[in-house]
From TrEMBL:
Mechanosensitive ion channel transmembrane helices 2/3 domain location: 92-133
InterPro entries: LSM_dom_sf, MS_channel_1st, MscS_beta-dom_sf, MscS_channel_2nd, MscS_channel_TM-2, YbiO_bact
Highest taxon, organism lineage: Bacteria
Sorted UniProt keywords: Cell membrane, Membrane, Transmembrane, Transmembrane helix
Domain Mechanosensitive ion channel MscS: 135-198
Pfam families per record: MS_channel_1st, MS_channel_2nd
TM helices/strands, residue ranges: 35-57, 89-108, 114-136
Signal peptide from the UniProt entry: none
Name of this chain's protein: Small conductance mechanosensitive channel
Organism for this UniProt entry: Paenibacillus uliginis N3/975
GO cellular component: plasma membrane
Entry's localization field: Cell membrane
Membrane protein topology class: Multi-pass membrane protein
Lineage, highest ranks first: Bacteria, Bacillati, Bacillota, Bacilli, Bacillales
MF terms (GO), sorted A to Z: mechanosensitive monoatomic ion channel activity
């Protein structure tokens, strides 16, 4: 006999029995003290793991800051901005590694199989590595450029066919400004060799042609007097230039060589100042001779 819903009494009883069983299962799950204690302990473990990870990251950050401050106060002459760049890079790597390990430990707390997950991550990383070899090479090269202090912002360098002043050093690219104002953006992976003109002091070299009619000793003495005290007037020069003597000789003239040590990347300015002071001294000498004549 069917009820008003069109169901047989046996079917109704079976459905009611299944509903009661589900409610019993749900109630047993809600009132399962052992299960909730396990969840509580798991949550506590996850919280402890998270707090320990934060603490480790802060400790490593502090160690990085102390190390860089110690290096900055040492006698090594390095651009302060480079310490900031290296410090931030090391901190980012530290945070990534610690957080990655933390996630793996938390997943293991919830009985996740880490083997397949790590295998999948390895395959994905390998695929990305093959597809982005140039990017990885640029980043690694940029890291070592910064870490090894190969050149700094403001340095005059030459790399391959590019020559100019360094404007920005990034992990992937380096930006330079050429002598004529052009901008070069070079992937760090292409920087295989560098000539840095700004590391050591430069040497200003001036070759002054003089007519053979001029007496050698008088000319050398005149040039030497003209350059006395020039280092005090011109900050590019570290000391007064030295007159080396005659560099070459022809039937019409002889060439006097003058050299002076100057600051890095200031050779052109120093040479122009030396020429100017010598020219002024020669003009004054000619005026004196003409007035005496």
């Amino acid at each position: 006999m069917e009820n008003q819903d069109g169901l047989l009494p046996e079917e109704t009883g079976k459905a009611l029995e299944e509903a009661l069983q589900m409610s019993d299962v749900f109630w047993n799950w809600i009132t399962d003290v052992d299960m909730w204690m396990g969840v509580l302990f798991a949550a506590i473990r996850v919280l402890v793991i998270f707090l320990l990870t934060r603490l480790i990251i802060r400790i490593v950050y502090k160690m990085i800051d102390q190390f860089l401050q110690k290096q900055e106060k040492s006698k090594i002459s390095v651009n302060p901005r480079r310490f900031v760049t290296v410090g931030e890079l090391l901190k980012n790597v530290t945070a990534f590694v610690c957080n990655f390990v933390m996630v793996l430990i938390i997943l293991s707390e919830f009985n996740f199989e880490l083997g397949p997950l790590l295998a999948s991550a390895g395959v994905l990383g390998l695929a990305i590595g093959f597809g982005a070899q140039s990017l990885v090479k640029d980043v690694i090269t940029g890291f070592f450029i910064i870490l090894e202090d190969q050149f700094a912002v403001g340095d005059m360098i030459k790399s391959g066919e590019f020559r100019g002043t360094v404007e920005v050093i990034g992990l992937r690219t380096t930006r330079m400004t050429g002598l004529n104002g052009e901008t070069y953006i070079i992937p760090n992976g292409l920087i295989t060799s560098v000539t840095n003109y700004s590391v050591s002091n430069s040497l200003a070299v001036v070759d002054l042609p003089v007519k053979n009619e001029k007496r050698v000793n008088e000319t050398l003495a005149l040039i030497q007097r003209a350059l006395e005290g020039i280092a005090e007037r011109q900050p590019e020069l570290l000391r007064d230039p030295e007159v080396l003597g005659i560099q070459s000789l022809t039937t019409a003239e002889y060439v006097v060589r003058i050299v002076g040590e100057c600051h890095p990347n200031s050779r052109g300015v120093a040479e122009r100042e030396i020429f100017k002071d010598i020219k002024q001294a020669l003009e004054e000498d000619e005026l004196c001779q003409s007035s005496q004549g």
